[in-house]
Amino acid sequence: MAKKATAKKFVYFFGNGKADGNRNMKDLLGGKGSGLAEMTNAGLPVPPGFTISTEVCNIYYQQKSKVPPAIDREIADHVKKLEKAAGATLGSTDNPLLVSVRSGAKFSMPGMMDTILNLGLNDRAVEGLKARTKNGRFSYDSYRRFIQMFGNVVLEIPKEAFEHEFEAVKKSSGAKMDTDLDESALRQVVDRYKGVVRAKARRDFPQDPHEQLEMARNAVFRSWMNARAIEYRRIYDIPDHIGTAVNVQMMVFGNTGDRSGTGVGFTRNPATGAKEFYGEFLINAQGEDVVAGIRTPQPIRELEQVMPKAYKQLREITTRLERHYKDVQDFEFTIQDERLFMLQTRSGKRTGFAAVVIATDLVAEKLITPKEAILLVDPESLNQLLAPGFDPVEWKKIPTATKGLPASPGAASGHVVFSADHAVEWAKQGKPVILVRRETVPDDIHGMFVAQGILTATGGMTSHAAVVGRQMGKPSVVGAGALEINEAGKQFRVNGQTVKEGDFISFDGLSGEVKIARVASKPSEILQVVNGTLSPKKSDLYRRFDQLLTWSDKFRRLGIRANADLPDQAELAYAFGARGIGLCRTEHMFFGEGRIPIVQQMILADNEADRRKALDKLLPLQRDDFYGVFKGMHGCPVTIRTIDPPLHEFLPKREDLMVDVAKLEAAGKSGRELDEKRTLLARVEQLHEFNPMLGHRGVRLGITYPESTEMQTRAIIEAASRLGKEGVKVVPEIMIPLVGMVKELRDQKIIVDRIAADVMKEQGVKIKYLVGTMIEVPRGAMTADEVASEAQFFSFGTNDLTQLTFGFSRDDVGKFLRIYQDKKILERDPFASIDVDGVGKIVAIAVELGRKARKDLKLGICGEHGGDPASIHFFEKVGLDYVSMSPYRVPVARLAAAQAALSVKHGD
Ligand code: ADP
Ligand code: MG
Ligand code: MG
Fold first, then answer.
1. Does position 324 have pLDDT exceeding 70, yes or no?
2. Residue 705 carries which DSSP code?
3. CB 426, CB 503: distance < 8 Å
4. Residues 535-548, mean pLDDT to the nearest whole number
5. What pTM value is reported for the model?
6. Which of 29, 40, 52, 102 has most ligand 1 atoms within 8 Å of CB, for mutation?
7. CA 640, CA 736: separation in Å to the nearest integer?
């Protein structure tokens, strides 16, 4: 790295009411560092400290696990500054400065990285601390915690090695709780811990605080690349290159006795969104004790009785923080001898339910505008509101086995598993699972991700399982203390019953009730309203959901259509707010009842006349289908695609036919059935293609069997005409798939125009219709100007376009995609989220060429990507007119489109 003349800043101080950083510096300081700076500037009681920026993390990795001397000097200067602010010195024997060394990336990753408390203690400083505080129990408790954390995080000694010694001392001194250990017992613990370090790390516990600090800092950097942090980033699409900051902060102590404590909380309920002070605390405890689920914490309300002054101040501060950040805050605090200190604040992670409730409440309270409310809700989280719940009648019939804390709402049902690995194994076989654990740890993340729900025996509403469950939108019940879990024996006992791995259980994350049974489900409240079975007046949640989406509609530019093939799908999409169909796949109608034989008759025909006979039978059926779909969309535009898939999809499998023929032959049968099977087999063999996805499909079918395009056009125009006579005006959009050359489209357009003219003349009506194409073959995109001379609209078929651009078969990509992602060759699955650099570039070129050739060219997208928020963001940027997705994703898309419009407008 070449050095510039002006020294760059890598370390940022906070303390004495002033900070170098602020809330807008999350990239550099991480969320925690930026929050500590902002709180310091606001004059809140925050212990002083400094933040080593995320850039240093990246430098550390570039320079093979080293930090350049210049940065080391900058850190040393800040240590001096901190010592001055704290009035204590690192390593001093009579007044030692103790610090925490805390990880903190731009995006919070609960429990994924490491933090070390009480750094600076050694054999002499601990005596200094004792002399100063006259509290030997506290001093040695702090020291044993430090050795344990440092030993685990920095020296990589398994936690169990320490826990084993701790339990041994607890037992020998007859202590029940950790807090029952007195000074002499804790001294024993410290000695044993030092022995553990010597045995496992083959060195003495480092006594020099400066060495401790450097080692801890590097360990925090290393924790950025531990397996669980990498897995977490993969799940949440967080890039690896952003790195973590390191916060070094003066310690304050919640473990000095009964006038001290520590806790975490939220300004509103993050599970339901209710406006209530929410959280937990522990008296005489430090740091992670609350989250780790070792002792069961007290609800935060009870703090009011125990320490009314600190409680009042905490409420005031956190209310102020919520107003300041205009969002729910998730905070950490410690009380040392009745004095309150704030240690962290950030936007609280919340469930989809809570997100909608909170966003609409904050607007009602005039804290934010509707525009800001839109930006507060993660579009994907709306899916939680659509998930089915238990049928209340069925639910009541089954006795409740136990009740835990309702950490994250939703109905969960599945087979019990006791480990994250098993959860993954079972889920791979397509089985729904409930992960049951005494408590979850960050290493369980992969199992939690695939589970239907999470159930734990210990821990409170802010325990790891609760926090992560809410964030993932998974139903979770925690702290169900009645569960006697035997993880090794793969079973638990509750209420006199034994439940084994694989047994079915159900729980309700809103009430906390757990039942040992499979329970029938019922559509979600939102869906009941959309289906018309529940009045919107009766659903507060629906009204809020609808309010948020109505606000979204005001800010979005992109039109929202749905991919719907059948009338009831069209109705549903319309009820969800789609105003048009972007893709109606006509072939899906061929699978309708009693139709396959006619379709097969058409395919089997070896001459045009026979083919027409079959098509004539299909005509009235298709006409009714289109009529229904048009009607379901209440006159909004409907794009109908002519037949697309390879024909063999409509015929029986070759292998099955061969077996049938062989069986008939072996049975000595002859006659019609055998003849039919033989003919079918012969035709199937004739149709066999080596690569059907690149074979006789799409526009190629229409070109080789023009009578099929004729029939479909006739059905479309006749349906539109019938609806027109009923007073509903529709403008059908006839879409020719898989066009790579303008001449292909021209061939089909001539047919469509001819038939449309015939029908209009017969019916004595005039109907406006459009003819356009799907852009899904790269050649079509690269010659989009030529194609646009014949097409009145383009709809990007990004599934095929991705397949053909990468040369990845959609059906085979699963074999290597994960490895590509692990090796960082691909960040994301390009079939789920558009590949902006490649496929996106082709889309952008086609948009530009197409619009140049035809100014009023209508542009849309109907691939899977149409419902993906990140892809929607891209489509907003390239200026498409609409996006189209499956009906259930319409709400997600409405919100995502509004967010995209707002952020693109503000230049991103
Ligand atoms: P995480 O990101 O996992 O929450 P933190 O860095 O926030 O990790 O710290 C872990 C725990 O230690 C938290 O409960 C926090 O409040 C506490 N803690 C961190 N720094 C200090 C400090 N300087 N004094 C007292 N407690 C601290
Ligand atoms: Mg924290
Ligand atoms: Mg296609």
1. yes
2. -
3. no
4. 97
5. 0.87
6. 102
7. 9
